[in-house]
Amino acid sequence: MLALLHTSPVHVPVFDALRDQAHPGLELRHFVDEDLLTRARAQGPDAVADDVRAVLTRAVAEGAGAVLCTCSTLGAVAETVARSAAAGVAVLRVDRPMAAAAVAAGPRVVVLAALESTLGPTAELVAEEAARAGRPVAVRTLLVDGAWDRFEAGDTDGYVRLVAAAADTVTATDADAIVLAQASMAPAQHLTTTPVPVLSSPAPGLAAGAEAARGH
Q: Which among 71, 110, 180, 195 has the fewest CB atoms less than 10 Å away?
């Protein structure tokens, strides 16, 4: 069984659909806590480390073979907590495979996010994957103004259209890859017209989580 830690309930049907398409038979168990992101934005991600640890402990107790954190703001915290707590199962952040793919695409990466709290962690992740691959990388971050307000208001269509429009301002002379930092941005990937590869995290992240859960 693969446990998923979300900070928004909108991710539940998205990952269920991806599982049905690509990983039939994989049991998913969703843990949703919106307050974690609210507090992390206000106080910093480390402020919710104990709560993240509690979710991981509960997931393992309930039989998880691996845990996938789908919140980019909390991804590094989840990995750190897992190491310190010796969770006994793999704890993955959903955006790590995407970051590795961005590094493989070329040395110029643009990170798009609707939340400012996501920009730093995602840029750091790309740099970490670049160091792991032994490749030079220059990361530029771009905050999509107004997008998160649309998301919080339930205007998902308006949200992803703003994200896609922001991605389309990036040209092939600017970047080798565009990273959609938040899992909720994934639908924008199919609306963009930029020639630059646009990468999202849910599908490759779930694939990594599924492999870890089955290998446990």
A: 195
d(CA 117, CA 164): 20
Helix (H) or strand (E) holding 185: none
- In one letter, which amino acid is 28? L
Query: From CA 73, how far away is CA 42, in angstroms rounded?
Result: 12
pTM: 0.93
- CA dihedral sign of residues 48, 52, 57, 61: positive
| Residue 77: strand, helix, or coil | helix
* Tens digit of each residue's pLDDT, the chain (216 residues): 999 999 999 999 999 999 999 999 999 999 999 999 999 999 999 999 999 999 999 999 999 999 999 999 999 999 998 887 656 789 999 999 999 999 999 999 999 999 999 999 999 999 999 999 999 999 999 999 999 999 999 999 999 999 999 999 999 999 999 999 999 999 999 999 999 999 999 999 999 999 999 885
Token look-up 């910093």 returns 44
Question: Measured between alpha carbons, how far is residue 168 from residues 28, 151, 160, 197 in Å?
Answer: 34, 19, 12, 11
Q: Which two tokens stand for residue 160?
A: 């992803």
Helix residue spans in the chain (DSSP H): 11-22, 34-43, 49-61, 75-85, 96-105, 116-133, 147-152, 156-167, 202-215
- Beta 28-32 vs 66-69: how paired, if at all? unpaired
